[in-house]
Amino acid sequence: MNMFMAIYCAILFFVLSPGILVRIPKNGSKYVVAGVHAVIFGVVVFFTCNFVSNFLKNIVSPPAKKEGLLEKPKITA
Predict the structure, then answer these.
(1) CA 31 → CA 5, 10, 18, 63, 70, distances in Å?
(2) How far apart are the first and last CA of the chain?
(3) For position 53, what pLDDT does the model report?
(4) What are 26-56's pLDDT values in tens digits?
(5) Residue 60: which of 50, 69, 68, 52 has the closest Cα?
(6) Separation between Cα atoms, residue 64 and residue 62, nearest integer Å
(7) What is the dihedral of CA 29, 33, 35, 40, to 10 degrees?
(8) CA nearest 16: which of 42, 52, 54, 46?
(9) Which residues, including other chains, have CB under 8 Å from residue 54's CB and lie 6 or more apart?
């Protein structure tokens, strides 16, 4: 996990904290609300972690050309 993934997880944790965007369930005790939000956070991280990681890899370090391979000149007739 790199620094950008850690920042992504921290922002996601803050946004999914009870009372920031929504509080689910509204009339639940503080432990039930915290548990529901923890499960939601876990599910969102599980399904988005690979996507965000691949997205950040392409932005931070774009794929480099392999050394030693020369581009063949195009032959036109």
Answers:
(1) 27, 21, 11, 45, 62
(2) 51
(3) 86
(4) 888 989 999 999 999 999 999 999 998 888 8
(5) 52
(6) 6
(7) 170
(8) 42
(9) none
Spatial CB neighbours of 16, under 8 Å, sequence gap ≥ 6: 37, 40, 41, 44
> Can you read off the two tokens belonging to residue 51?
């996507």
Q: Which residue do the tokens 């996601």 mark?
A: 12
19 near 33, Cβ under 8 Å? no
Which residues contact residue 34 at a Cβ distance below 8 angstroms, ignoring those fewer than 6 apart? 18
Please state the pTM of the whole predicted model. 0.70
Q: Is 22 left (phi over 0), alpha (psi -120 to 50) or beta?
A: beta
